[in-house]
Design goal:
Blueprint: E1 3-4, H1 5-11, E2 17-19, E3 26-27, E4 29-32, E5 46-51, H2 52-58, E6 65-68, H3 79-82, E7 85-88, H4 94-120, H5 125-136, E8 139-144, E9 149-152, H6 161-169, H7 174-182, H8 185-191, E10 196-198, E11 208-215, E12 218-226, H9 234-258, H10 263-273, H11 279-288, E13 296-302, H12 312-322, E14 326-331, E15 334-341, H13 345-361, E16 365-368, H14 378-395, E17 401-404, H15 409-413, H16 418-426, H17 428-443, H18 447-456, H19 461-468, H20 472-486, H21 493-505
Parallel strand pairs: 4-5, 5-6, 6-7, 16-17
Antiparallel strand pairs: 1-3, 2-7, 8-9, 8-12, 10-11, 11-12, 13-15, 13-16, 14-15
Helix pairs in contact: 1-9, 4-5, 4-9, 5-9, 16-17, 18-20, 19-20
Length: 509
Amino acid sequence: MRVSVHVMLDSIRRYRHESHLPETVSFRRVALLPRRAGEEALRADCLYVGFLSDALRIRRPGFICFCLRDRERDETETDAALAGLLIVEEAFTPEYLFNELQDLFARLNDWYEDMQNAVILKKTVQDIIDMSERIIGNFISVSDSALALIAYTKNIPTDDPISLFLIENGYHSEEAFRKFRKFRRFETWTESDGLIVNTDRNIAKYTVISKVFTFGELYFAHVVMSCTHREATPGLLYLFSCLAEILGHCVKREWDAEKAYNHEYNSLIADLMDGRITEAGVRERARIVGIQAEDKYIVMLPAEGPNKASFPERMTRDLARAFRNIRSVYFNTQPMFFLHRNGPASFFDETLAHLDEYFHENNIHCGASDIFDDLLELPDAYRQAECALSEGAAARPNRGGLARFDAHYARCLLDKTKRAARLLETSRYGKMLLYLRRTDDERRSNNFEVLRTYLCNERRAAETAAALHMHRNNVVYRVDRIEKMLGIDLEDWQTRKNLLLSFIAMGEA
């Protein structure tokens, strides 16, 4: 490991000294300065320690030395003569200072070698952060592409509110996201290649140094140092850059291992499934990973067991190549496919039809949820996909394909459990009826009753009019309005069936 001169300067800051050193020099070793020229060849990558009088007598071009003053200052100590020297004005021997600097070199080299071995042995990011605590001395956190916590310095306390919330909850607060957006941190993170130094303290309590890891244009991981105990000197920045270099190898390894499964979605999906994210927080985290506010979504689950994919990595690569709006993630060790796009229903129908062909050709069972437009409904969509997968596999046990929830809606609703009740409330058809009931209450209308009676009378307008004491033409007009309101076509038998079953499940038919 090469050690920057700035790290050396940090180690002797408590001593009185004057520096005539260049800014960018670094060293591989430290040695005592020979008392006379010619005793040994002077190395350009070595930091020497000795008396000032010896250094002035035997100095060479590129020679760097930390010197103890042993002579009176005189006119020979010009800037040119002192170039490359640091003069310590303390009453101890060169051997004392040499031992101190050599110990620092040994500790830094051991640290760097330990980190390298950790990468070779495929240890975790947390392992590398743990072994860096005694060297860096400040609070450090590492987050993934959704800004969820991966690792942090567990033995270095912090009183910064942003960091405390992150430790306690595993993700940033909504207030933190608002500040990130207000002070344009997202743009800075995604556009920067090197270390980012923020001294304004608009967000955090302390100066913050960070490094973002990206692959292509994809934001993947983020390491942040909060200067809670040590100030952001050039020497500390050098040590942090060494840590970031090693973490970069770990992150690259994780990227290579997980890129087929779109790691940037994993944390967001997991938090949504576990209910660890609020409505306000989901919007910003979704935007970070490229999900737009106007997008609509479908969740798909491939089968486990006899009709699962023999090579899941191949399946994810196939889908990634063929369908650019599909992301493959893991949840509870099971692959999940997440389709999001701002498009008409016909786009989703066409995409699902092509997916059905793919799964059929490869004899893989897969279940698909309804289309939904609120990411907080993802757990419900997951259950819909589970139900569709189960029913589809039962209906065609020897033939793979994509089973859509709306095609198996009736069978799912026949399960008279809390699970089925939740499926009703979160399904497309259940939402339609709940919407009608709510707007009827608000507008003092009876669209819910008109639709129920019309379907129960098998779309016969005259019978519906008689039951509701309305004119037949008024029934036809009202039904047409309801179709437009809900975006449905009652000429479609499956739509009628699913609406009727929803009425039945609600106890209304």
